[in-house]
Design a protein that fits this description.
CATH superfamily of the largest domain: Dihydrodipicolinate Reductase, domain 2
Number of domains: 2
Shape: globular
Number of helices: 13
Oligomer: single chain
CATH topology of the largest domain: Dihydrodipicolinate Reductase, domain 2
Order of helices and strands: EHEHHEHEHEHEHHHEEEEEEEHHHHE
Structural class: alpha/beta
Largest sheet: 9 strands, mixed
Helix content: 25-40%
CATH class of the largest domain: Alpha Beta
Length: 390
């Protein structure tokens, strides 16, 4: 069980690009990073409005002289300091990720970036090579993949408790874009602009969460072919989609179905994951994050609860609240940030043995998410055709 004891020698000096007062995700990053004493927020370029960003940063406890107007200013200002930041989180719109991440890595800073990581796998490969050459970590924030129930499912699959996996059923839908974008906030409008969002809307915005979480649970299975059917029910969002269905064929013969939508009117937002094997099935939803439904063929259904001693050690080791209390998104973000901090600390110490066995969402996870998006777009733009995954 995680209890807040520090697992690295000193807090990482941490900065942020984006994540300011008017953003949607900045507080999630700070909730994750600042919980276990592994990060200390010391710098940031928090906002396109420099004065507003400075005021916000000072209110967070950052010195005014380290509240920068731009990410370029942050790079210049921090590079020459003895107490320079170790790592910077990028919590900005998609189209800025590549340039900011590249500049930070070239200056010698570790990076934690929002998803989808970049627009193309070629950009991902370039950044992966740069990070390797510089000896730096790139982490990616896939929200719920730090939840203990997710790792309970992964452990059950690994130990054969479900048998051979046959069916993968994934869903992440909400209704917050069921109307048009007339009164949408600026933070929402960029998501439906292809020049800023990239080649997808909901597939990249929320579908990549589904895909990566399924990879955490099923690391031994790879997609061989897929078919993607996508649609913009609000015509002004075209060519991007606000609704999509993806069918997937896996290399072990399993079949997958993924539904992602932001026009599921009335739905306040829910993720659902079901993994069906030859012996049993498991199902988990973030609407009931404490519970895992475990169904063995021919036996009564079980509802397993996080933090209970009958769970696998892989789940109990990353639990925070214990079985009596709810474990949610903030706890999962804290685990992800903790794992990335441990990876950065190991990289700084040159401990490659630790890194070879340590789990965290890194550049490879981000790259596979972009690769999946590229294949989805290729299929959808080809008339919802089956395509080989490449």
């Amino acid at each position: 069980m995680i209890n807040g004891e520090r697992s690295i020698s000193r807090p990482l000096r941490w900065g942020m690009v984006g994540g300011g007062r008017t953003g949607q995700v900045g507080y999630k990053h700070r909730t994750g990073a600042l919980r276990d004493g592994t990060y200390q927020l010391v710098a940031g370029a928090f906002d396109l409005d420099a004065e507003r960003g400075r005021d916000f940063g000072v209110n967070l406890g950052v010195s005014a002289d380290r509240c920068y107007a731009t990410y370029q200013d942050l790079v210049v200002g921090e590079t020459g300091r003895e107490d320079r930041v170790d790592v910077v989180s990028v919590a900005t719109p998609n189209f800025t990720h590549y340039a900011i991440t590249k500049a930070l890595l070239e200056a010698g800073f570790h990076v934690i970036c929002e998803k989808p990581l970049f627009f193309t796998t070629s950009e991902c490969d370039e950044i992966a090579e740069l990070a390797a050459r510089k000896g730096l970590i790139v982490g990616v924030t896939y929200g719920f993949t730090g939840h203990p129930i997710v790792h309970q499912m992964a452990a059950m699959v690994k130990k054969g408790m479900l048998g051979e996996i046959r069916i993968v059923d994934l869903q992440y839908t909400h209704g917050f874009n069921a109307g048009d974008d007339t009164n949408a906030s600026e933070a929402q409008k960029w998501r439906t602009d292809p020049s800023k969002s990239g080649p997808t809307f909901v597939l990249g915005d929320i579908g990549t969460h589904l895909y990566y979480l399924s990879e955490v649970v099923l690391p031994h299975m790879k997609v061989e072919r897929l078919l993607c059917d996508r649609k913009a029910f609000i015509p002004t969002r075209a060519p991007l989609e606000d609704h999509a269905t993806v069918l997937m064929h896996y290399d072990n013969g399993a079949r997958g179905r993924l539904w992602v939508s932001s026009v599921d009117a009335g739905n306040m937002g829910s993720q659902r994951y079901r993994f069906v094997g030859s012996k049993a099935s498991v199902e988990w939803s973030d609407s009931r994050p404490d519970q895992l439904i475990y169904e063995v063929q021919g036996e009564p259904n079980r509802i397993m609860h996080h933090g209970m001693p009958y769970l696998e050690e892989e789940s109990l080791a990353i639990d925070r609240m214990g079985g009596l209390h709810t474990e949610g998104l903030g706890d999962s973000w804290s685990n992800i940030y903790l794992w990335i901090a441990e990876a950065i600390d190991a990289k700084m110490r040159g401990d490659e043995d630790f890194l070879n066995t340590h789990h965290y969402p890194g550049i490879e996870a981000g790259t596979e998410g972009v690769r999946w998006l590229e294949n989805c777009v290729r299929s959808a733009d080809g008339g919802a055709a089956w395509v080989d995954f490449k």
